[in-house]
Design a protein that fits this description.
Number of helices: 4
Distance between the termini: 46 Å
Order of helices and strands: HHHH
Number of strands: 0
Largest sheet: none
Radius of gyration: 28 Å
Number of domains: 1
Shape: elongated
Strand content: under 5%
Structural class: mainly alpha
Helix content: over 70%
């Protein structure tokens, strides 16, 4: 597009009457919506990163213990398999607490304000 064509389009746009009006707080609403969406993405990313770090550290610790003392890891494994439902419930509860702390509570307080 040439500059002359662009100038005529801009001039025509500025001379024509507008058929609609935006509300006074339109920019504030758009900014708030974008900020909330980005905050949600950031909180979720932080939760996933923290979960990954915790799983990574636990796997390194288990690997180190397995290398140093295999009998201890076998005892822990037999305890986990013997109490599988309780272990799963505990892990689910801890995961939900982490999710609520990192994602749900900031989202709730952000919407309340």
């Amino acid at each position: 597009m040439k500059n002359e064509e662009l100038d005529t389009i801009i001039e025509k746009s500025l001379k024509t009457k507008v058929d609609f009006w935006l509300s006074v707080d339109f920019a504030q609403k758009v900014t708030l919506t974008v900020a909330r969406r980005e905050q949600w993405k950031n909180d979720l990313r932080e939760y996933l990163l923290m979960t990954g770090v915790i799983i990574g550290l636990l796997s390194v610790a288990v690997g180190l213990y397995y290398y140093l003392d295999k009998q201890f890891i076998l005892n822990v494994f037999s305890f986990v398999t013997g109490n599988l439902v309780m272990v799963i419930c505990t892990l689910f509860t801890l995961n939900f607490i982490l999710l609520a702390d990192k994602v749900l509570l900031p989202l709730l307080f952000n919407r309340a304000s």
